[in-house]
Automatic annotation (TrEMBL):
CDD domains: cupin_PMI_type_I_N_bac (cd07010). Its cofactor is Zn(2+). This is Phosphohexomutase. It comes from Flavobacterium gilvum. Keywords: Isomerase, Metal-binding, Zinc. Zn(2+) binds at H105, E122, H180.
Amino acid sequence: MSSKVYPLQFDAILKERIWGGEKLKTILNKPITSKITGESWELSTVDGDVSVVANGAYKGKPLTELINEFPNEILGTAVYKRFGNQFPLLFKYLDAREDLSIQVHPNDELAKARHNSFGKTEMWYVMQADADARIIVGFKEDSSSEEYMENLNNKTLTNILDGIKAKPGDVFFLETGTVHAIGAGLVIAEIQQTSDITYRLYDFDRKDAQGNTRELHVDLALDAINYKKVDTYKEYNKEVNKSNTVVDCPYFTTNFIPLEGEKAVANSGSSFVVYMCIEGSFELEYDGETHKYIKGDTVLIPAAMKNYDLKGNASVLEIYIS
């Protein structure tokens, strides 16, 4: 692959959701045609939703095929050794016109046993927030399955959950087991393990266009929930032209780069790198070529790309596996 290695972009996989809106188009330039588009899957190998290359020599090729052909060059030596040909992360942008359901994700052990899947540790970066937009992250105080079920049955679950006002630049890190919900009026960049396993606890009794309520997973969730109070909010530095660590966990590392000018990057080849442009625009110079990105773009840097330069005025999330 060395002769054709270059930054890879992918066609957005757009998802209509009952809670979705139109901000993915107005704010992030996504080619949506629906007024209820809730998600843009930027980089995915979930079955049935595999990303397809949108640029360059490999245009039209599914990411899974590219990984099978060039596993070390795409994934990186350490990632390939740990995960084989699986791409272990999923990247999304979300637009919540309405509140999302209150939900929880199982850990690796439960997800493997029940669904032959990874668990779903994730993080949110708030890109845009309407006035008074809020999120739910865990319990206000340590709880129990009994208290949880009592409030769920009484439709008072939100009384014992921690609702936090969210503003642009906020980061929340949600380990598996954390009960959560993205509130109305938020656009979020989400980084997570490759998993589409969600246990829906409560959906505010709303109905879809056909008058149907969405399935709940109350029984499955009981032993997946962490009933302890958790701290999900992440403080982080914003030193210019530096990779400022935001989240560093076994599943991914996310850095925040306030780019003002130029930053040289040197990678070891052990992991791929993903950049999400969350504000402004920047260029990536590699091997005599310049690649341009704007707000809402996501780009996969194959592990074989070891030295390149970032230039511009932008806020960028940088993600890899340590």
